[in-house]
Amino acid sequence: MVVWAADIGGTNIRLAIVRRNKIVARTVIPAMAPLGLRAALKRMVGVWTQLHADPRITTEKISAIGLAIPGIVNPQTGQIYPMPKGKFADAPRLFAGPLLQKILPVAPFWCNDAHAALAGEHRFGAAKGAKNVVLITLGTGIGTAVMLDGRPLFGAHGMAGNVGGHTTIDIRGAACLCGNIGCAETRASTWMLPELAQGISGFNGSSLASLPLIDFENLFAHAAAGDAAAQKILNQCLHTWAVLVCNLIHQYDPELVLLGGGIGSQHKAIFPFIRRFAKQHSWAKWPLDIRPAMLGPDAGLIGIAHLAALNRGRVR
Ligand SMILES: [Zn+2]
Question: Rounded to whole angstroms, how far apart are CA atoms 73 and 16?
Fold first, then answer.
């Protein structure tokens, strides 16, 4: 079975052709989110078609289309709810019906991107065999998804477990783009790093001040090189992630906590801190596995392709 899979982010869209659960072709295109999801889907179909035209990739017809998006999707109806930050503003009107039929060759299966990544890790990666799992993706923002008793958690609208990044960590904290205050994302995510750096005492004398871009790669590097401002920011990020992990442990009682995304799976230095913090501060006084996700940026693609294939013919 051949599936067109997309992991649609606010900055980039990862596209793949997945055949029997293996990615046989892939590419990344800019999301251009302010132009809307409809425009993005049209470009995506063009790119998939080009990938598909190569006979070395596959000559089979596509059977399903899976679309993972950075927003809330109701698993019963396929309804997409408005996303914060004004990205893909047309998404809630698009999720079904004639508009989509004009763009896509088969009806798509929609899913939240963290749910898709958890499905990928559960079927093929680090959560194989586990029944109670919290996945946290640390990247541009913070995504979360939860599986309880072997089933993904959805709630009344599909939001359950999905907005861990927007739980309040600091009640006197900064306003978040989502409308809430002091969200985990406002204290420890890539989109907020430049503002966090500007606000830290000693920033002007810091080696970070000369960088054209402050991201976690250079934050970790400058902190390791002894820059005091970088160490302060990193310390805040580590504490925020650790508090978030504790909160999620208390809410969902997982046996396994996976950290994925660009930062979570790459910086192994995060894990000793979070494990120590969780042992000290959480109620979980039993063995609890906190470790990196395995599939990296492929988790969402593999997961959404798997879900789209499973739900083929049953899509809303
Ligand atoms: Zn928020």
Answer: 21
Q: Is 91 helix (H, G, I), strand (E, B) or coil?
A: helix
Q: Determine the distance separating the centroid of ligand 1 and the alpha carbon of 82, expressed in angstroms.
A: 14
Assign 252 to helix, strand or coil. Answer: helix
Q: For 125-151, what is each residue's pLDDT tens digit?
A: 999 999 999 999 998 899 999 999 999
Distance 53 CA to ligand 1 centre (A): 41
Give the distance (Å) from ligand 1 centre to CA of residue 167.
7
Q: pTM of the full predicted structure? A: 0.93
Beta strand pairing call for 256-260 and 133-138: parallel
- Contacts (Cβ under 8 Å, ≥6 apart) of 157: 72, 74, 79, 81
Which tokens hold the place of 205?
């004398």
Q: Provide the total of helices (H) and of strands (E) in the chain, helices listed first.
A: 11, 10
Q: What is the DSSP string of 13-34?
A: EEEEEEETTEEEEEEEEE--GG
Q: If you search the block for the tokens 């503003």, which residue do you land on? A: 89
The mean pLDDT value for 8-33 works out to 93
Give the H/E segment covering residue 146.
Answer: strand 142-148
Instruction: Give me the residue label for tokens 């596959």.
Output: 58
**Residue 96 CA, ligand 1 centroid: distance in Å:** 27
Give the torsion sign (CA, 20, 22, 27, 31): positive
* Interval between CA 237 and ligand 1 midpoint (Å): 15
Q: How far is the CA of 132 from the centre of ligand 1 (A)?
A: 25
d(CA 219, CA 47): 34
pLDDT tens-digit series, residues 160-173: 999 999 999 999 99
What is the distance in A from the centroid of ligand 1 to the CA of 8?
A: 19
| 185-195 mean pLDDT | 93
Question: Could you give all domains of the chain from N- to C-terminal order, each with its CATH number?
Answer: 2-118 (3.30.420.40), 128-292 (3.30.420.40)
Rg of the Cα atoms in the chain: 20
